[in-house]
Amino acid sequence: MKEPLRLLSGSRYTLGALLLLGIMAAIIWRIPQRTGASGGAAGQLAAAARTPTIEAPTPTAVTPSDPLLAPAARGTWRPIFTDSFNGSALDTAHWSACFWWSENAPNGCQGSSANGELEWYLPENVSVHGGSLDLVARRDHITTESGAYNYTSGVITTTGKFAFQYGYVEARIRVTPGAGVWPAVWMLPQDHAPIAEIDIAEILGNRPQVLNTALHFIAGGVHQSVGGVYWGANFGAGYHIVAVDWEPNSITWYEDGKLVYRVTQYAEIPHKPMYLLLDSAVGGYWSGNPTSATPFPNHFYVDWVQVWSHAPAPTPTPTTPIIQNRR
Questions:
Q1: In a 3-state reduction of DSSP, which class is residue 184?
Q2: d(CA 229, CA 103)
Q3: First vs last C-alpha separation in the chain
Q4: Is 96 left (phi over 0), alpha (psi -120 to 50) or beta?
Q5: Are the CB atoms for 102 and 322 separated by under 8 Å?
Q6: How far from chain centre, in Å, is Cα 296?
Q7: Nearest Cα residue to 189 out of 250, 86, 271, 286
Q8: Would you say the pTM of this structure is higher than 0.90?
Q9: Do 196 and 217 meet the contact criterion of CB atoms below 8 Å apart?
Q10: What share of the chain is helix, strand, coil (3-state, %, to 5)?
Q11: DSSP states of 221-247 as a string?
């Protein structure tokens, strides 16, 4: 198979520009945080400009992992969470179908208005069938206590049910391409502290062959983010594995077992328990809005999710960064 082209560029370049920039290993870029008042355009404007120190990690080919096989990252691992979605309904011992602030709300919950998202999340847009989780976005009209919405979608989170500090997370996912849809696998702090977020995978529906990764944090009282863009597998054409190895001194992202991005700034890495989220947002300042050609219903399929922990657990030790990637 032809080696995928690593693109470390902004999200609004033309195809010609992307090809010219294909030899670059990384570049500074910013995307909106998916939740919280500091996300979206305001978060982008508030992020401080920094001079990048860039060194691209070399892709390392390994055998992509199957459920309950060893993670791509090195180390001694033990599984601490797995859901293969083999039943006929969401396992509510693991997941909730709304955000924590409206976990038991019968009428669903709002997406991130700070990002300009257009969806209202409904539990009925979450289903398990055929051995996969299905988060479906629909072009619906719904009136809620927060206003009227023209789209509904699905979200699941493990908040209050499962959280962990450091480990290896992976999910096997597939998306339905289409402008204005924004499926993601991500993590937030269990204590609900603002602006701490690991985006394991964000896929824009109009670019299903591009994996976006990001880390959001506070530095100097300002919301900042670092991240990478990797041009590789086509998530609209089949299932692929996304993963992150969250260590005390580094965070490393993988696609199908291949290392694609790494952060090693200790101060930027979360050092508290975090929980998992999977959702399919509709619209937003970064993704753009759906068009008449966007297919609805629009499905975000997840074959399985699993989390591993080191045995024994690692101890945080601040070190001098080896690789410093910045947007």
A1: strand
A2: 32
A3: 29
A4: beta
A5: no
A6: 22
A7: 271
A8: no
A9: yes
A10: 10, 35, 55
A11: TEEEEEEEEEE---TTTS-EEEEEEE-
**Rounded CA gap, 62 and 106, in Å?**
44
Residues 6+ apart with CB under 8 A from 266: 248, 249, 316, 318, 319, 321
Per-residue pLDDT of the chain (327 residues; tens, 9 = 90+): 332 222 333 332 333 333 333 333 333 333 334 543 333 333 332 332 222 222 333 333 333 345 555 687 777 899 999 999 999 999 999 999 999 887 666 689 988 878 899 999 999 999 999 999 999 999 999 999 889 999 999 999 999 999 999 999 999 999 999 999 999 999 999 999 988 999 999 999 999 999 999 999 999 999 999 999 999 999 999 999 999 999 999 999 999 999 999 999 999 999 999 999 999 999 999 999 999 999 999 999 999 999 999 987 666 665 443 333 333
Tokens read off for 196: 């701490």
Structure tokens at 267: 């101060």
The set of residues, in sequence order, having a beta carbon less than 8 Å from that of 209 and lying 6+ positions away, is 231, 232, 233, 234, 235, 236
User: Beta-carbon neighbour count of residue 179 at 10 Å?
Assistant: 18
| 8-state DSSP, 144 | E
Cα dihedral 179→31→253→197 (10° resolution)? -120
Contact, 263 vs 246, CB < 8 A? Answer: no
**For residues 296 and 285, what is the distance between their CA atoms, to the nearest angstrom?**
20
- 89-109 residues labelled b (16+ CB within 10 A) or e (exposed): ebeeebbbbbbeeeeebeebb
The answer to whether 150 and 118 are in contact (CB under 8 A) is: yes
Q: What single-letter amino acid sits at 26?
A: A
Q: Which amino acid is at 251?
A: I
Tokens, residue 42: 């305001």
